[in-house]
Specification:
Layout lengths: L5 H11 L4 E4 L4 E3 H17 L7 E5 L4 H13 L2 E4 L6 H11 L3 E4 L1 H8 L6 E3 H10 L16 E7 L7 E6 H15 L6 E4 L6 H12 L3 E4 L8 H7 L4 E4 L1 H13 L9 E4 L6 H10 L4 E6 L8 E2 L14 E2 L4 E5 L12 E6 L11 H7 E3 L6 E11 L5 E6 L3 E4 L2 E4 H9 L4 E7 L8 E6 L3 H9 L10 E4 L13 H12 L1
Parallel strand pairs: 1-10, 3-4, 3-5, 5-6, 9-10, 11-12, 12-13, 24-25
Antiparallel strand pairs: 1-2, 7-8, 13-14, 14-15, 16-17, 17-19, 18-19, 19-20, 21-22, 23-24
Helix pairs in contact: 1-2, 2-3, 2-6, 7-8, 10-11
Length: 498
Amino acid sequence: MDDDLVHSLLDVAEAVAPTRPAVRDAVGAWTYAELHEHSHAVDAWLHDRGVGPGDRVLVQAQTTRELVAMFFGVSRRGATFVPINPATKAFHLAAVVANAEPRLVVADRANAETLRSLTRLPVHETGTVWPQVHAGAGRRLTRTATPAATDAAALIYTSGSTAAPKAVVTPHAQTTFAVRALRDALGYRPDDVVFCRFPMSWDYGLHKVLMTCAAQAEVVLAGTESDLALLDRMRQTATTVVPVVPSLAAMIVTLARRAAGPLPPVRMFTNTGAALPQPTIEQLRAAFPGARVVRQFGQTECKRISVMPPEQDRERPDSVGRPLAGTEVLILDPDGRSVPPGETGEIVVTGPHVMAGYWRSPEQTARTFRPDPRTGQIRLHTGDYGRLDEDGYLYFAGRRDEMFKRKGIRMSTVEIEAAAMDVPGVRAAVAVPPTPHRDLALCVVSDLAPHVVLRELARRLEPAKVPATCRVLDELPLNHHGKNERGKLAMILDEALS
């Protein structure tokens, strides 16, 4: 067995713990033996439809047990899994289909007609596919060749600063290294139940499935369930680990405050994608006494950069943790030279988890994945800024599009939002950087008047960092992953000025 291949994670789990629960969705659950069997059935189903090594299999479907089996089956086939968020609209979907050039397309009924208008390939509907796969359970193909560890296990399309689709090429070796390193860093256990609200089209959701498998634990796929039922579902499944983004964390806190009876036995919340405000962290700790709230930092281009050790979750509250084992984080100045501890520069990453660039985008790949001038090893230039302390802990300062100068002072949206969230009564906050036509602005969800929010910010920030305007909204726009849509807020603000 080649343990660098994605499906080897499932093969090991099935050999070690065949009867242990592996994956649960809204309608049922499979053991590791059942998931293993269905992954082989997917492999055979794909073979019968002409899918071979290197082919792309594009899937736009809800995250269910069957989608997990599809991913592992695609891996066995030596093909490349291309998961697309079910909420992706035709405009962006057309560009993705053209870029990926899939060999085979699978879709939920809700998305099938749109995809049929975008490709000449037959679009296989999940309502037909899954019964065919179930019927083939127990079938095994005679293997004539196995994928290489350097082959692409998946293409993960990310939202970026360009209009063109951008897919991170995620090879088997980088994926399995990151999965095992994260499992160890976070201390996943075989008795864990991981409650995953995120789709497999986002690497946060995809890797939760893989990390759970690597720990021979159980993952609960809860992306299609009602917001109001989340806490009950966590209680029913005896959830112990919950990956969150700020919007999901705030929702869980609200539900926990209203709950009657015992709460689920959560021992750890993990956060990446967008930093949790400190007040939200404290609210989670108050609602779930004893639970760790673990900060992390990463990018799809290397999966994860740093993790705060769970046992240190109350230490260095501004830090996003230490680099993963076997990896290295550098902080470089604009000339590519390392800066001393405590100084801010670009976060640059090396290690076995750095992915293989962007699919069919050599220019973007060359800008982001650059060789070390001394060793030739590929380094990921994240475009994010931060600093390391004397002990090697990383502190995130802001993303490239979140850093700006105002009144001669360099600042980031992160520090402004953190100050806003420190104001009692502010439930959510997004700072929108200035443009030539509009000054720095703040959008909040709050019962406070805008001038009160700005007055409180003036007590917490130096004058140049206090926004010129504050706008109170009923809610902030979020993308498919629960992250704030800063671009949409900028449009709202610009429209108000026109």
